[in-house]
Specification:
Strands 3-2-1-4-5 form a five-stranded mixed β-sheet. Helices cover about 50% and strands about 10% of the residues. The longest helix is centred in the C-terminal third of the chain and has 28 residues. The chain is of the alpha/beta class.
Protein backbone atom coordinates (compact mmCIF):
# COMPACT_ATOMS: atom_id res chain seq x y z
CA UNK A 1 0.00 0.00 0.00
CA UNK A 2 0.90 3.69 0.16
CA UNK A 3 1.35 3.84 3.94
CA UNK A 4 4.48 5.28 5.49
CA UNK A 5 6.75 2.71 7.21
CA UNK A 6 10.17 2.73 8.82
CA UNK A 7 12.54 -0.05 7.76
CA UNK A 8 15.88 -1.37 8.99
CA UNK A 9 18.02 -4.43 8.28
CA UNK A 10 20.13 -6.15 10.90
CA UNK A 11 23.18 -7.84 9.38
CA UNK A 12 26.43 -9.41 10.48
CA UNK A 13 28.88 -6.75 9.24
CA UNK A 14 29.40 -3.13 8.19
CA UNK A 15 30.10 -3.79 4.50
CA UNK A 16 26.62 -3.93 2.93
CA UNK A 17 27.62 -5.81 -0.21
CA UNK A 18 29.03 -8.69 1.85
CA UNK A 19 26.61 -8.54 4.77
CA UNK A 20 24.56 -11.57 5.79
CA UNK A 21 20.99 -10.56 6.62
CA UNK A 22 19.75 -11.53 10.08
CA UNK A 23 16.35 -9.82 10.08
CA UNK A 24 14.33 -6.89 8.76
CA UNK A 25 12.17 -4.54 10.80
CA UNK A 26 9.23 -2.75 9.15
CA UNK A 27 6.74 -0.59 11.01
CA UNK A 28 5.80 2.60 12.78
CA UNK A 29 6.55 4.18 16.13
CA UNK A 30 3.72 2.12 17.65
CA UNK A 31 4.31 -1.27 16.03
CA UNK A 32 7.23 -2.90 14.24
CA UNK A 33 7.09 -6.25 12.47
CA UNK A 34 10.45 -8.02 12.64
CA UNK A 35 10.99 -10.58 9.88
CA UNK A 36 13.76 -13.07 10.77
CA UNK A 37 16.01 -14.70 8.21
CA UNK A 38 19.04 -16.10 10.00
CA UNK A 39 19.40 -16.96 13.69
CA UNK A 40 22.23 -15.62 15.85
CA UNK A 41 21.86 -18.37 18.43
CA UNK A 42 24.60 -20.95 18.82
CA UNK A 43 23.76 -24.42 17.66
CA UNK A 44 21.61 -23.32 14.75
CA UNK A 45 22.85 -24.05 11.23
CA UNK A 46 24.37 -21.13 9.34
CA UNK A 47 21.68 -20.94 6.70
CA UNK A 48 17.95 -20.23 6.32
CA UNK A 49 16.48 -21.43 9.59
CA UNK A 50 12.96 -20.04 9.75
CA UNK A 51 11.30 -20.96 6.43
CA UNK A 52 11.14 -23.61 3.79
CA UNK A 53 12.80 -22.57 0.53
CA UNK A 54 9.45 -21.87 -1.14
CA UNK A 55 8.27 -19.80 1.83
CA UNK A 56 11.43 -17.69 1.84
CA UNK A 57 11.15 -17.13 -1.91
CA UNK A 58 7.54 -15.96 -1.53
CA UNK A 59 8.50 -13.68 1.37
CA UNK A 60 11.27 -12.10 -0.70
CA UNK A 61 8.79 -11.47 -3.52
CA UNK A 62 6.51 -9.63 -1.09
CA UNK A 63 9.39 -7.53 0.21
CA UNK A 64 10.54 -6.67 -3.32
CA UNK A 65 7.03 -5.50 -4.23
CA UNK A 66 6.88 -3.34 -1.09
CA UNK A 67 10.33 -1.82 -1.55
CA UNK A 68 9.64 -0.71 -5.12
CA UNK A 69 6.01 0.23 -4.42
CA UNK A 70 4.42 3.61 -3.64
CA UNK A 71 4.66 3.57 0.16
CA UNK A 72 7.08 6.01 1.79
CA UNK A 73 10.06 4.20 3.37
CA UNK A 74 11.64 5.99 6.34
CA UNK A 75 15.11 5.00 7.52
CA UNK A 76 18.27 6.11 9.24
CA UNK A 77 21.04 5.74 6.65
CA UNK A 78 18.71 3.44 4.72
CA UNK A 79 19.18 5.43 1.56
CA UNK A 80 22.73 4.14 1.58
CA UNK A 81 23.45 1.07 3.73
CA UNK A 82 20.02 -0.56 3.79
CA UNK A 83 19.49 0.11 0.10
CA UNK A 84 22.75 -1.62 -0.74
CA UNK A 85 21.73 -4.59 1.41
CA UNK A 86 18.37 -4.69 -0.39
CA UNK A 87 20.11 -4.70 -3.75
CA UNK A 88 22.33 -7.60 -2.69
CA UNK A 89 19.70 -9.62 -0.84
CA UNK A 90 16.62 -8.89 -2.96
CA UNK A 91 18.08 -7.57 -6.25
CA UNK A 92 16.08 -4.31 -6.15
CA UNK A 93 16.77 -0.65 -5.45
CA UNK A 94 14.13 0.62 -2.98
CA UNK A 95 11.99 3.52 -4.17
CA UNK A 96 10.18 6.38 -2.41
CA UNK A 97 12.64 6.73 0.43
CA UNK A 98 13.36 9.43 2.99
CA UNK A 99 16.55 9.09 5.03
CA UNK A 100 16.54 10.71 8.46
CA UNK A 101 20.33 10.92 8.56
CA UNK A 102 20.11 13.53 5.79
CA UNK A 103 17.35 15.70 7.29
CA UNK A 104 19.04 15.52 10.70
CA UNK A 105 22.37 16.53 9.15
CA UNK A 106 20.75 19.62 7.68
CA UNK A 107 18.89 20.41 10.90
CA UNK A 108 21.77 19.74 13.31
CA UNK A 109 24.98 19.80 11.24
CA UNK A 110 27.29 20.07 14.24
CA UNK A 111 25.67 17.35 16.34
CA UNK A 112 26.24 13.56 16.28
CA UNK A 113 24.27 11.77 13.59
CA UNK A 114 23.85 8.36 15.21
CA UNK A 115 20.40 6.94 15.91
CA UNK A 116 21.46 6.45 19.53
CA UNK A 117 22.03 10.20 19.88
CA UNK A 118 18.76 11.08 18.19
CA UNK A 119 16.73 8.68 20.32
CA UNK A 120 18.39 9.78 23.56
CA UNK A 121 17.78 13.49 22.94
CA UNK A 122 14.31 13.39 21.40
CA UNK A 123 12.61 10.49 23.19
CA UNK A 124 12.14 9.18 26.69
CA UNK A 125 13.73 5.86 25.79
CA UNK A 126 16.19 3.56 27.50
CA UNK A 127 19.70 3.05 26.12
CA UNK A 128 18.71 0.26 23.75
CA UNK A 129 21.97 0.46 21.84
CA UNK A 130 24.18 0.05 24.92
CA UNK A 131 26.21 -3.14 24.68
CA UNK A 132 25.86 -3.10 20.88
CA UNK A 133 23.13 -5.76 20.52
CA UNK A 134 23.41 -5.45 16.72
CA UNK A 135 26.84 -7.08 17.00
CA UNK A 136 26.68 -8.92 20.31
CA UNK A 137 23.13 -10.26 20.58
CA UNK A 138 23.14 -13.72 22.16
CA UNK A 139 19.53 -14.60 21.36
CA UNK A 140 17.21 -13.94 18.45
CA UNK A 141 14.75 -12.19 20.75
CA UNK A 142 17.45 -9.77 21.85
CA UNK A 143 18.33 -8.91 18.25
CA UNK A 144 14.71 -8.62 17.14
CA UNK A 145 13.89 -6.30 20.07
CA UNK A 146 16.86 -4.14 19.16
CA UNK A 147 15.72 -4.02 15.53
CA UNK A 148 12.20 -3.02 16.57
CA UNK A 149 13.53 -0.15 18.71
CA UNK A 150 15.56 1.08 15.73
CA UNK A 151 12.49 1.21 13.52
CA UNK A 152 10.20 2.72 16.12
CA UNK A 153 12.71 5.42 17.03
CA UNK A 154 13.27 6.32 13.39
CA UNK A 155 9.57 6.67 12.64
CA UNK A 156 8.99 8.68 15.82
CA UNK A 157 11.82 11.18 15.27
CA UNK A 158 12.04 11.63 11.50
CA UNK A 159 9.03 13.96 10.88
CA UNK A 160 10.38 16.64 13.23
CA UNK A 161 13.62 16.89 11.28
CA UNK A 162 11.81 17.18 7.95
CA UNK A 163 9.62 19.91 9.46
CA UNK A 164 12.73 21.81 10.58
CA UNK A 165 14.18 21.51 7.08
CA UNK A 166 10.90 22.82 5.61
CA UNK A 167 10.79 25.76 8.03
CA UNK A 168 14.23 26.81 6.85
CA UNK A 169 13.19 26.51 3.20
CA UNK A 170 15.82 23.81 2.67
CA UNK A 171 13.68 21.05 1.17
CA UNK A 172 15.48 21.50 -2.20
CA UNK A 173 18.76 20.79 -0.39
CA UNK A 174 17.28 17.66 1.17
CA UNK A 175 16.17 16.49 -2.27
CA UNK A 176 19.66 17.17 -3.62
CA UNK A 177 21.23 15.22 -0.75
CA UNK A 178 19.05 12.22 -1.53
CA UNK A 179 20.12 12.42 -5.16
CA UNK A 180 23.80 12.56 -4.26
CA UNK A 181 23.29 9.65 -1.87
CA UNK A 182 21.84 7.56 -4.71
CA UNK A 183 24.86 8.34 -6.87
CA UNK A 184 27.24 7.37 -4.05
CA UNK A 185 25.57 4.03 -3.40
CA UNK A 186 25.80 3.20 -7.12
CA UNK A 187 29.50 4.10 -7.02
CA UNK A 188 29.84 1.71 -4.08
CA UNK A 189 28.48 -1.09 -6.25
CA UNK A 190 30.41 -0.22 -9.40
CA UNK A 191 33.70 0.61 -7.73
CA UNK A 192 36.33 2.45 -9.72
CA UNK A 193 39.12 1.60 -12.10
CA UNK A 194 42.61 1.73 -10.59
CA UNK A 195 45.72 2.07 -12.72
CA UNK A 196 47.64 -0.80 -11.15
CA UNK A 197 50.94 0.10 -12.80
CA UNK A 198 50.76 3.65 -11.48
CA UNK A 199 49.64 2.40 -8.08
CA UNK A 200 52.69 0.12 -7.90
CA UNK A 201 54.98 2.93 -9.02
CA UNK A 202 53.71 5.22 -6.29
CA UNK A 203 53.84 2.44 -3.72
CA UNK A 204 57.47 1.66 -4.57
CA UNK A 205 58.38 5.36 -4.63
CA UNK A 206 56.96 6.14 -1.20
CA UNK A 207 58.13 2.86 0.30
CA UNK A 208 61.70 3.66 -0.79
CA UNK A 209 61.56 7.14 0.72
CA UNK A 210 59.99 6.07 4.00
Amino acid sequence: GSARRAWDWETDRLEPLDAVVRCLGVGTKEDVLVIPFLSVEKGRPQGPTFYAASEEAALKDILRAWLVGPGLKISHNGGYYDSLVARTFLAVWPKNQRDMILSQRISEPEMPHSLAYIGSTRLDIHRWKAGKPAENARTDRELWTYCAYDGSTTDDCEPAYVEQVAQRNLLPLLKLDHGVQAVCRTMHVNGMLVDQAERKRLHDHFAASA
